[in-house]
Design brief:
Helix 8 links the parallel strand 4 and strand 5. With 212 residues, the protein is of the alpha/beta class. It has 2 domains: 77 residues, Orthogonal Bundle (Methyltransferase, Methionine Synthase (B12-binding Domains), Chain A, domain 1); 122 residues, 3-Layer(aba) Sandwich (Rossmann fold). The protein is globular and about 55 Å long. Helix 2 packs parallel to helix 4. It has a 5-stranded parallel β-sheet with strand order 2-1-3-4-5, with helices on both faces. It is 56% helix and 11% strand. The structure holds cobalamin (B12).
């Protein structure tokens, strides 16, 4: 019997191989991938973040914990991100300029794919211009902007302003997310929606399209 605490501990100790093996054992024992995320892996990142904030952990601990979760996500991706035949719409996503956090974005992508979206991932550290070019050249329904740093949140706002300046804002719905972001902020910067996690991102994106 795999314990969620053991998975959390593998993350906080930065042991990617153990995180991978425990995740594999949990999946083999029919534990739901969402539970592995919500009760095992994400609490590990939360704890590492808290210890970083209090000065007990430093950058190397953040790096190895992030890598450990990336490794475990390799196992969850084919399950959570399994694309079905139905297509809800096309989703373009990226992490904003100055920000290289991508684990949360990658989880959102898995949930979207698993819920029938075709997703194009621009990656991390994406400038407003790069987002605009992708929107102009594609036929996407929704753009998702991820920001994990309070310092890079303004870059989500600048991306929306750049879309407006280039006459592209009406072409696409914009959703924002990331740990420090809130629904009120999303409204203030002119986004169409905010979602706090992967499952709600998939639900809210579907609502945006239904109401378009
Ligand atoms: C792992 C990690 C890193 C890794 C990232 C690895 C990677 N591949 O992503 C590394 C080591 C690179 C890193 C670097 C830094 N980090 Co860091 N990091 C973290 C940590 C521990 C976990 C982040 C994470 O993955 N969380 C888990 C995921 C699942 O949650 P999430 O990202 O919020 O995503 C969910 C939702 O927000 C939402 N969501 C996310 N994106 C989107 C997008 C859309 C469109 C929608 C709808 C929803 C959505 O759905 C996701 C799934 O549920 C956090 C601590 C924390 N508590 O979050 C700090 C944290 C984010 N980092 C922090 C800092 C300060 C830094 C550094 C500046 C440290 C430094 N001195 O260099 C650098 C910045 C580098 C840069 N320029 O980006 C601070 C940020 C403080 C702040 N408020 O600004 C935090 C909060 C730590 C802390 N408590 O101080 N970090």
């Amino acid at each position: 019997m795999v314990s969620f605490e053991a998975i959390t501990k593998a993350v906080t100790s930065g042991d990617g191989n153990l995180a991978y093996e425990l995740t594999k054992s949990a999946l083999d024992a029919d534990v739901s991938p969402n539970d592995i995320l919500d009760k095992g892996l994400i609490p590990g990142l939360q704890e590492v973040g808290d210890q970083f904030e209090s000065g007990d952990f430093f950058l190397p601990e953040l790096i190895v914990a992030g890598d450990a979760v990336s490794k475990a996500l390799e196992l969850l991706d084919p399950i959570l991100g399994k694309e079905g035949a139905a297509t809800k719409g096309k989703f373009l996503i990226g992490t904003v300029k100055g920000d290289i956090h991508d684990l949360g974005k990658n989880i959102v992508i898995m949930m979207l794919k698993g819920n029938g979206w075709k997703v194009t991932d621009l990656g991390v550290d994406i400038s407003p211009d790069e987002f605009c070019t992708a929107v102009a050249e594609g036929d996407y329904d929704v753009l998702g902007l991820s920001s994990l740093l309070t310092m890079t949140m303004p870059n989500a706002a600048q991306t929306i302003e750049a879309l407006k300046a280039k006459g592209l804002r009406d072409k696409i719905k914009v959703m924002v997310g990331g740990a420090p972001t809130k629904a009120e902020w999303a409204q203030k910067i002119g986004a169409d929606a905010h979602a706090k996690d992967g499952p709600s991102a998939a639900r809210v994106a579907a609502e945006l399209i239904a109401n378009a």
